[in-house]
Amino acid sequence: MKKSYLAMKTDAAVASDLIDSDFKEIGVAAKKLANHVIMLGGLGFGTSFLKWLASFAAIYLLILDRTNWRTNMLTTLLIPYIFLSLPSILFGLFRGDFGKWLSVIAVVTRLFFPKHFPDWLEAPAALVLLMVVAPSLFADTLRGDWIGIMICLVIGCYLLQEHIRASGGFRNAFTKANGVSNTIGIVLVMVYPVWALILHVL
């Protein structure tokens, strides 16, 4: 009787171990499935969405700097950031004939009608000119490479620390009325390169 009880206990333990190992295998398979689904669809969508978001955040910060956010920060660094992070659809549009016409109009206006060329248009005109005349090494290779992503991350980190310094500390950057929107914009600028580098490493 005692021996049969021990045998039953051992059988139950073996069955429990088998069920546990099956559940572990199911868990591993579910994780692999989730990772593959994310890699095929979710991550690609997330990366492109963050790229659009970061580009518009950089444009927003550039506009803000030209209107009422006058600081000593080197916000012209947003020009190469936008160049490197602008989605391919918009980049192709500005690199084509549309961008060439804009560049011609900007250059002619700046040369012959300087009084009618406002100061706040200099940065956007420089961005369009950069997109039009950039060699394919920068326009095609560097933009999609991890080096371009690293440049974007360095620009975002620099702008964040300069903004915190200009605001008078980390707390002021997140609490002042005029600082919160700038901080959110800079954080959005940093999210895309961080995410893209994580994906590149994985």
UniProtKB/TrEMBL annotation:
<feature type="transmembrane region" description="Helical">
    <location>
        <begin position="144"/>
        <end position="160"/>
    </location>
</feature>
<feature type="transmembrane region" description="Helical">
    <location>
        <begin position="120"/>
        <end position="138"/>
    </location>
</feature>
<dbReference type="InterPro" id="IPR008892">
    <property type="entry name" value="COR413"/>
</dbReference>
<dbReference type="Pfam" id="PF05562">
    <property type="entry name" value="WCOR413"/>
</dbReference>
<feature type="transmembrane region" description="Helical">
    <location>
        <begin position="75"/>
        <end position="94"/>
    </location>
</feature>
<dbReference type="GO" id="GO:0016020">
    <property type="term" value="C:membrane"/>
</dbReference>
<keyword id="KW-1133">Transmembrane helix</keyword>
<feature type="transmembrane region" description="Helical">
    <location>
        <begin position="37"/>
        <end position="63"/>
    </location>
</feature>
<keyword id="KW-0472">Membrane</keyword>
<feature type="transmembrane region" description="Helical">
    <location>
        <begin position="180"/>
        <end position="201"/>
    </location>
</feature>
<protein>
    <submittedName>
        <fullName>Uncharacterized protein</fullName>
    </submittedName>
</protein>
<comment type="similarity">
    <text>Belongs to the Cold-regulated 413 protein family.</text>
</comment>
<keyword id="KW-0812">Transmembrane</keyword>
